[in-house]
Amino acid sequence: MSAEKKAGVPRHVAIVMDGNGRWAKKRFLPRFFGHKQGVDALVRVVQACIDREIEYLTVFAFSSENWKRPSDEVSGLMGLVLAAVSRYLARMGAMGVRIRIVGDREAVSDKLRAAWAEAETTTAHNSKLTLNVAFNYGGRWDIVQACRQAIEAGVSAQELTEAKLSEFMAMSYAPDPDLFIRTGGELRISNFMLWQTAYTEFVFSDCLWPEFGEAQLDEAIAAFQARDRRFGGVNVPGVAGVTQEA
Q1: How far apart are CA 67 and CA 25, in angstroms?
Q2: Candidate list 20, 40, 66, 72, residue with the active-site label
Q3: Rounded distance, CA 233 to CA 212, Å?
Q4: What integer pLDDT is reported at residue 212 of this predicted model?
Q5: 184-187 long-range contacts, Cβ below 8 Å, gap at least 24?
Q6: Fewer CB near the last or first residue (10 Å), C or N of the chain?
Q7: What's the whole-number average pLDDT of the chain?
Q8: The overall pTM is greater than 0.70
Q9: Does 136 qualify as catalytic in the annotation?
Q10: Is 12 helix (H, G, I), strand (E, B) or coil?
Q11: What is residue 6's predicted lDDT score, i.e. its pLDDT?
């Protein structure tokens, strides 16, 4: 990858992986098969991110609202996570991927928590790409749990700033996403990373997630590279990368 291209590549990409169920329905298959195909798509995208030297990839695997889905679908998703860890953990480790699970772990089974712990421990030394899997996660939950942690840590009202609260967010170890992608044709963020996406660039794709791959990722990156990111300021003529307040 050239230095010029690398400079325009987002450091952190967040993806809402939408359209698994519709992909399966179009093929007269149960929704579970769409989710299974979606795991394969995720593995492809992880490799594509590594090839493009993206440092962080955060995917919305299961929201705190997804418990409202039919019980058989929820049960199938839980089983799929366990199967995916068993099938892909060694491969992810060999690819240099560090896996981190983000979300409220209290509602899931002990078996699932154990699988997550294994995935995180086994890959903790890797540094090519950090894969954040948001599971039983919600943006509002994240803000509330950060506030609770800050209170428990003794942070006073006078001390509580945006920077201080950010220290308690679930992904405080990662930079805010540069690029947010949602597949499946929906035009909303669905309670995903509400705090972290204040200045993120959004790209919405009609592509159903199981069909998403390198070409679609490159299209999203190209759209990102065409944006003028000022973070509330204005570009200073003749000075690359410098902004001043409007």
Answers
A1: 21
A2: 66
A3: 34
A4: 98
A5: 184/16, 184/18, 184/19, 184/22, 184/208, 184/209, 185/18, 185/19, 186/16, 186/18
A6: C
A7: 90
A8: yes
A9: no
A10: strand
A11: 58
Q: How many CB atoms lie within 10 A of CB 72?
A: 11
Structure tokens at 33: 């098969």
Spatial distance between the Cα atoms of 143 and 210, rounded to a whole number of angstroms = 30
> Of the listed 18, 142, 176, 178, which one is catalytic?
18
pLDDT tens figures, 190-240: 999 999 999 999 999 999 999 999 999 999 999 999 998 877 666 655 544
Q: Is 211 buried (19+), middle (13-18) or exposed (0-12) by CB count in 10 A? A: middle
Report the pLDDT averaged over residues 105-112: 86
Q: Confirm if 149 and 168 have CB atoms less than 8 A apart.
A: yes
Crossing angle, helix 214-225 and helix 31-51, to 10 degrees?
Answer: 60
The verdict on whether 218 is a catalytic residue reads no
Nearest to 97 by CA among 134, 61, 48: 48
* Other CB atoms within 10 A of residue 154 CB: 7
Of 39, 50, 38, 40, nearest in space to 13 by CA: 50
Q: How far apart are CA 129 and CA 43, in angstroms?
A: 12
The answer to whether 123 and 88 have CB atoms below 8 angstroms apart is: no
| Calpha distance 112→114 (Å, rounded) | 5
> Residue 171 carries which DSSP code?
T
